[in-house]
Structure formats: C-alpha cells, structure tokens
Amino acid sequence: MNKKILMALIAVITVSNGCTASEKTVSQRFLDLNSLTERTDSEVLSRMKKDRLVLVGEHHTNENHHRAQLRVIRMLHEAGVKVAIGMEMFRRENQNELDGWISGKLDEGEFEKVYYNNWTYSYSFYRPILLYARDNHIPVIGLNVPSDITRQVARMGYQSLSDEQRGYLGDVACRVDKEYMAFIREAFGGHSHGNANFVYFCEAQMVWDAVMAVTALDYMSQNPGTVMVILAGTGHVRKQAIPAQVRSRSDLPVTVILPEAPGSIDKTTVDGKDADYILLDLK
Predict the structure, then answer these.
(1) Beta strands 83-91; 227-233: pairing state
(2) CA triplet 49, 53, 57: central angle to 5 degrees?
C-alpha cells in the first residue's frame, strides 16, 4: 500500500475514535487516593485549576518523576492558567538570579552556576522544566532556606538559632509533636536514622517545610489568580509536611500529587492522608 494512503487511513481512524494517539497515551493515569479510581487528565485539571497550590513530589534522581512534574506544569499552562513554579532546589536569596533566567538576562551557562550553588543533584534532571519555564515566561520562585540553618537545627536544635537567624525565617516556629515525628520516621526512613538526635532532625524538617510554605504563601498573596506548582522531595510535599504548614496559615486549597515509585509510592504504601493522587505509568 502507498505510504501516503496508509498514513491518511491512520489519520481517519484516529479522528473517528475521537482522540489522538498522544491523548490516548496520557489519559487515565491519575489514581485518586480517596476513591482508588483512575481519573482522566481533564478531571484532574479541573481540580487543579480551582486550587491555588499544586504540590508534585519527586525522588530527586528519578527522571520519570521530573517528567511527571513537567507534565503537570504543562497541563496547567496549556489550559491558559497563570502558573508559577515554586522550587525546593533554590533558596529565596537567589530570586534575582531566577528572575534573570526567566527574563533572558542570564544565559544557561551563568544560570547553571547559580543552580549548582543551590543544589547538588545533576542540572540535567531539572533542565527540561527550567527551559520550559524560561521559554514560556513562567516565574520560578526559590522557596528554600539557607542550608547552614537547617544543618544547624539538625545538629543542635531549633533553640540554637540566633535572633538574626530566626528573623530570617520570619513567621516560622518549631513545635514538633509525636504525630509529626512518626510521619518523619515513615517519610524519610533511613535518612532520619543516622541523626544523633531524632528530635533535632524533625525540627530541621519542620523548619524546611514551614519556610517553603511561608514563601509560597507570600508569593500567592502578591499574585492573585496564580496557581503555584511546588516541586520538592516526596517527604516535603505530603499532606503532613508543606500542606500542613499552609493549612495552619491559610485556607488556600491544595492538591498533592505523588509520582509512582513501586514499593515506596503506590496504592499499598500511601493513601488519602498522604496525597490526593498518584501519577501512574510515567514511562
């Protein structure tokens, strides 16, 4: 059969089915953790458009997770939503450099140096997201606190911070209860067990969560009508972490999405108390 005729027949079949091949590929991949049913992209998009904060977790070196994050950002942007991207990977003090990247004032070589001054994992994991943000003029907001503060809290506790350091944190207190400690032990597993003082480790995580929540809320208050997609490690985006810090300060609606990681993030290991959706089949 002539190749042109074959392609035309494929096109006719595709149209008659009412969707494109790419639409078939990406549909029915969100698992609703409250009902344990799969939701279409359009169903999840309808919810995300109404919410002001959408948190999408990651295992930092999992490329599928970063593709999932970009997919969520793209879904919202292509639906005409005013989007901002909040990133754990950048500190608040580097916002001018982030703005320079989005505006085109910083070339990629310069920006990559800024990235590595903030984060240790390979730039290649985040490059597609950061390029998409720049090419589409989507603001990227640094959410994180200086690492020397969280390291100090993890070693010596929140009470060791000076007045100046606490002033930098702003509206952040640190009251760790048994429920939060149990969550940290579950969410961070082996990462927490090597800490000499587990309470201090929990305090460091709470400071981390709280600062990211406060920074996101500050941006949202100044940019009404924006939906912020927050990208952070899975332990930070679960409902007991950043979302809990948001709830204690605001009534903004929040959606939490965890990308699938069989054995650690699937319908047998997380439920509606942890997140709203698992994003399935990311390959």
Answers:
(1) parallel
(2) 110
Two tokens, residue 241: 């972490």
CB-based contacts of 59: which residues, under 8 Å, 6+ apart?
Answer: 65, 233, 234, 259, 261
Distances (CA, A) of 266 to 137, 231, 234, 247: 34, 19, 12, 25
- Could you tell me the CA-to-CA distances from 56 to 16, 33, 66, 230, 275 in Å, in that order? 35, 15, 9, 6, 10
Question: What residue spans define the domains of the chain?
Answer: 28-279
d(CA 9, CA 160): 71
Report in angstroms the alpha-carbon separations of 116 from 126, 224, 268: 12, 31, 36
Question: Cα(214)–Cα(202) distance, rounded to whole angstroms?
Answer: 18
Structure tokens at 143: 């959410």
**Count of residues in the chain:** 283
Q: How far apart are CA 172 and CA 207, in angstroms?
A: 7
* Local confidence pLDDT in tens for the 283 residues of the chain: 444 444 443 343 333 333 333 333 443 489 999 999 999 999 999 999 989 999 999 999 999 999 999 999 999 999 999 999 999 999 999 999 999 999 999 999 999 999 999 999 999 999 999 999 999 999 999 999 888 888 888 888 888 888 888 777 766 666 776 777 787 787 776 554 454 588 888 888 888 888 899 999 999 999 999 999 999 999 999 999 999 999 988 999 999 999 999 888 999 999 999 999 999 965 5
Q: How far apart are CA 34 and CA 46, in angstroms?
A: 17
The domain 28-279 having CATH identifier 3.40.50.11550: the answer here is yes
